[in-house]
Amino acid sequence: MRKKFIAGNWKMNMTASSAIDLVKALNEQIIAGGVAGSVDVAVCPPFVYLPAVIATLKGSPIAVGAQNCYLEASGAYTGEISPAMLKDIGCQFVILGHSERRHIMGETDEVINTKIKLALETGLNPIFCIGELLEEREANQTETVLERQIRQGLAGLTAEQMQKITVAYEPVWAIGTGKTATPGQAQEAHKFSRSILADLFGASVAANIRIQYGGSVKADNAAELLTQPDVDGALVGGASLKVGDFTAIILAGKPAGGGCGCGCSCGM
Ligand code: PEP
What we know:
This protein is α/β, with parallel strands linked by helices. Helices cover 41% and strands 14% of the residues. An eight-stranded parallel beta barrel has the order 1-2-3-4-5-6-7-8, surrounded by five helices. Strand 7 (211-214), helix 11 (222-226) and strand 8 (233-236) form a beta-alpha-beta unit. Helix 7 (142-153) packs parallel to helix 9 (183-201). The structure holds phosphoenolpyruvate. Phosphoenolpyruvate binds at residues 9, 11, 170, 175-176, 214-217, 235-239. Residues 9, 11, 170, 175-176, 214-217, 235-239 line the site of phosphoenolpyruvate.
């Protein structure tokens, strides 16, 4: 069984003080809600707030990730941040292939693949985003797009490396629009993506890969999405900026029958 993983992508939002206030409150809520250990949680603040957020969350069950990194390890790349720098300050995750980077910054599948490989070599765990545009869905191209993004984005990775990756299915038409995929649409895309992962890395590796859904996940739609068999968590944008909303989404990921969420019988 795959433990649910809820991550918050803050995008280009927050101030230094609101970032600290948010993670302090979130940490308290998670402990009070009894989800520490049964749902994995991460926040992904803008680069400049990472050190303060990491320091504030020291000893907390909440992990910290970055929203991007560069594709070279070091050197004359003015304004860029390397995976090694992120690792050095205590980041565990990095979001790669987000649709805003694909479609606004022009990142290709090849660029994303290079970043994923370097992030893995550096010891970061990528959250690898895939997802189709509205016109691609309307032209029945969703599976073609997802398959291309998965095959090219993950090209050359070993099954062992793949175990460090979370995939996030984020239909572009659902990101920041308030239009969530139906639970059925999400399940269909996740199941299809897992079948491609199985083809690339083997069925048992694919069965253990967590696939998050992202795209206007809110407190009131999270539970239904998260009960789909292939939906293993959520990548949350707007709703991760409000402690009450993000906590509700995390609580929606709590395993129904109790337990730690990993499928063992520890009874936590
Ligand atoms: C995202 O940024 O990855 C995202 C899914 O945003 P939102 O939840 O705001 O749609």
